[in-house]
Amino acid sequence: MRTLALLLLPLAATGCVSTAAAIVKAPFQVAGKAVDWTTTSQSEADRNYGKKMRQAEEREGKERRAWARRCDGHPEREGCDRYEGFVASEVR
């Protein structure tokens, strides 16, 4: 009976060791998740910048088309000698 208990002891202790390891690792895993949530990866930054630039280019296109419609055939109108509106490449 005593030998049976000694043989089963390592099996019972295995669960305790894995539980203890999980408890020790938990704060580090939580901290890692918090850092992931609060920081922006390079791919996210690239995606956000691309979206911002597409929106800026779309705005510039709309403004340039409106300017062209207003000035079409009338270069003597005020502001029609050259486009001075929004330019997407100047967005920071």
Mean pLDDT: 79
Distance linking N and C termini:
78 Å
Q: Which spans of ≥5 residues are poorly predicted at pLDDT below 50?
A: none
Class of secondary structure makeup: mainly alpha
Please give the number of β-strands.
0
Written overview of the protein:
This protein has helices at residues 2-38, 42-71. The chain is built from 2 helices and no strands. The chain is mainly α. 73% of the residues lie in helices and 0% in strands.
Features:
2 helices; mainly alpha; about 90 residues
Secondary structure topology:
Layout: H1 2-38, H2 42-71
Q: Summed up, what is this model?
A:
By secondary structure, this protein is mainly alpha-helical. It is built from two helices and no strands.
